[in-house]
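User: Predict structure, ligand DGJ.
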Amino acid sequence: MKIMILYIAAVFSFASLQANAKQSADSVIISTESPGGWMIRTNASVYQIILTKEGRVQQAYFGPKAQLAFHQKKINAADEIPVRGAFPTKTPLLEVVFADNVRDAELTFVNAEVLQIEGRQTLKITQKDKYYPLEIASFIRVLPEFDILEKWVAVKNTGKKNNIKIENLQSASISLPPDRYDLTHMAGAWGHEFQLRNTTLTEGVKTLQARDFKSFDNPNWFMVRPADETADVSGAAWFGTLQYSGNWRIDFDKAFNGRLQITGGINFWDTDWTLKPGTAFETPRFIVGYTRSGSEGAAQNLTAYIRKMVLPAPWRDKPKPVLYNSWYATTFNVNEEQQLALAEIAKEIGVELFVIDDGWFKGRNDDHAALGDWTVDRKKFPNGLQPMIKKINDMGMDFGIWVEPEMVNPNSDLYRAHPDWVFHFPNRTRHEGRHQLMLNLGREDVYRYLLKSLSTLLSENNIKFIKWDHNRTLSEPGWPDAPVNEQREVRIRYIANLYRLIDTLRTRFPDVQFEDCSSGGGRIDLGMLSRMDQAWTSDNTDPVDRLFIQYGYLSAFPANTMVSWVTHEDWHALKPGLDYKFDVAMSGVLGIGYDITKWTEEEKKLAKTKIAKYKDIRNLVQFGTLHRLISPFENNRSALQYIAGDQSSAVIFCYNMAEYLNGSTTQSQKAGILKLRGLDPGAFYNIPELNNVVYRGDFLMNVGIAWPVKGAYKSMILQIQKTKQ
Ligand code: DGJ
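Assistant: Predicted complex:
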């Protein structure tokens, strides 16, 4: 999100419209005459905007290309920018109050142009209020190969005298054709993130939202499908997410006539923004896509888009290293000797990046103290960190470190010096979460303190990886020192400065890789993933729970961001084997979290073999196309297939959970069939793990092979390779 200060818009006449919209054969945005407006094309979809004679900008259609002609004849248009004003029949994108307390807005078309933004055609349509000095530009940036549109708006106070109060400003509104729709979204809690849920959208509004800066219970992602189109690999699906890490909301407003309006953006609950004369406010981007390839197409399009367009460029195309993280082994009780002992074994088994977690900084012996004081604990590391880092580097591994910059413990030097730097209200309890308070990063002094502390840490030590944690939710978001009309802006200012802080650190330290963490998966979204190279998916490392968490995660986010560790955790006392734990963790970015100094020679040998195998298949896992073959949400087993872009090879992860599910039938107890997807139908594939048997691609996809895994909590990784017959 950018808060734009300067914004210059030339106001063209209606007649200039056609001239402005540059068109060529490969244009994805074309202007139309009958009806007047624009047609935005992706590979599978069309988004149509019309301009009425009265100067209203309306969305006429968003869906498959094939149905466009039909819909053109039966236009049932909705405003591109639904406002609070006139009849309140839609969920508003814009709600403002003008200086004379008028709360209704009335928009009219000003001009339109096709711009290049970050190398992509973008339609910008400017409208203005008919009377008051308010201008709103809506942007649609087109990513045709992913069937994705990025939509956002920027509002400007074009007046010279009065403020305009924004009470609500969403990023985008889309309107789907009349139908019966089912919504798939995610639910969850700490330790159980990314659980997929389905619900029918009946008339009324269903809201997904965050109000406390956490998205455990509700990661900001959705998929909507016509109720009678349920196949995984075919049929219509609209999907989307918001590129934002603060409070957000997505509303699904279903009308009696069957239309569905989806609106998403910053959650303006207890939030507003004062638009001073001459200033502008730009929203984060709302990502929305359409596919004819079912839930699988939705996941593939969105994850490919994130992998290729959103993730920070430096690490986007590099394989992520196998990491060791000492948290589960040593918690807060860290010291040089013990970390080096872990590092020796990590190196021996093939780890490439050694990460020290919490506990390394001054006075941090448990979670009651020290957050905020980002200097090394000399009692634990009398020589500082650098000598230890040097030894780890000499072993051939990079070194990484844990931080939680946005937080402070009341028992810390920082809080003692600056008790006013945390979110708080006078006369109200400062509620603690994990014994910590949240710094008000909206403040410039807090921003500068964190930038300085982290820059010092990174420049004095050869740190190549930061795990950025965020362990509590927001409470009492007060900022008593701020001017009264800015006090409810604090959440938006916080996130703007959080992004600025990470962006500045990345510019200063371009070699450092960043991992997003929030007590596990509490803040994973495209705002963070455009700044963080990977994400700690969950504090729950139990492999069975992870099958669900990871399957859900992979509906929205790419595998090369999904960090998964092998640890001693066994939440259900099922005693899953080390082999199984590795197989689960190897379907993402592999990490190890055991106390590996306690491993037997046999365990080390197994780990070494597994890590070597992971390095062998890593490119497929991290850069291949994922087909989620069997869902753990519907079966007593699960399977994931990653295939190379040229269809020459694939890796298939097959997991058994319970032998039989509660209530299973004779039918469901029969050995299953494993059908692969996305292969070259006429090519032959060799499967070394199954006695080098060779099958044709079409056989593997349409007939399939017998489910290869036997026994509860057992697994198998199959690699297949194109071969001559
Ligand atoms: C929560 C994280 O999710 C864990 O992995 C670990 O880093 C702890 N915080 C450390 O306090």
